[in-house]
Design a protein that fits this description.
Elements (H helix, E strand, L loop, with lengths): L1 E6 L6 H10 L3 E4 H7 L6 H10 L12 H8 L3 H29 L4 E5 L14 E6 L2 H12 L3 H9 L4 H5 L4 E4 L4 H20 L1
Parallel strand pairs: 1-3, 1-4, 2-3, 4-5
Helix pairs in contact: 1-9, 6-7
């Protein structure tokens, strides 16, 4: 089983690249999905969040209010680090279980985990290869403002809260530039898939 980490900053097109990989028969896990699962009502993860951030981050039905929690952690570096420290081990454990299941299904397959904070958290070290998805900063800003209906200032605040794209690119075994749109990104993804298949065959 070839374990591949896929990362990139906010609004650069990671989801589209993952869609293409899925079409090609690659196992793909979205770390955001795992992060949601580990804070479902009744989980240890949600209990830890309430313990540290208070019941004010819950919706009336007891679910996590992600917007309220986001508003707290996006403006406070210390609180963001605390949240990552609480949830990260739970997410890694869930991902490892998922990889084990994939390996049972197809021992010589390719498993891709898409996670925005893979480099910051140093969890990239457990993968055989790293793919970094990126795009030109002006395009990233425009996409984020449109996607999340944000002002330029709010969008920039979210972008600047993350590691710069240029820094992330230094960790990449493979780069996918989505600046030119879907078709160009698809071509690059297919090329990388062919190269990963060669590595698995070895």
């Amino acid at each position: 089983m070839l374990k591949v980490g896929l990362t990139g900053s906010i609004a650069v097109g990671k989801s589209y690249v993952c869609e293409v990989f899925r079409e090609l028969g690659v196992f793909v896990l979205d770390a955001d999905q795992t992060a949601r699962e580990v804070v479902e009502p009744g989980t240890f993860g949600l209990a830890k969040i309430v313990e540290h951030f208070g019941a004010g981050v819950l919706q009336p039905d007891g679910r996590l209010d992600r917007a309220k929690l986001g508003a707290i952690v996006f403006t406070d570096e210390g609180k963001r680090q605390l949240l990552n420290k609480l949830l990260h081990p739970l997410v890694i454990e869930a991902q490892n279980d998922w990889i084990d299941e994939c390996e049972k299904t197809k021992p010589r397959g390719i498993a891709v985990i898409d996670a925005a904070l893979m480099i910051e958290s140093e969890s990239y070290k457990r993968f055989n290869k790293i793919i970094v998805v990126w795009c030109e900063p002006a395009i990233q800003l425009q996409r984020l403002m449109l996607r999340n209906n944000l002002s330029e200032a709010d969008a920039l605040q979210r972008i600047n809260a993350q590691m710069p794209q240029e820094e992330k690119k230094r960790y990449a075994d493979f780069l996918i530039d989505t600046s030119a749109g879907f078709e160009a990104a698809r071509r690059q993804t297919i090329e990388i898939f062919e190269r990963l298949k060669v590595l698995v065959a070895r």
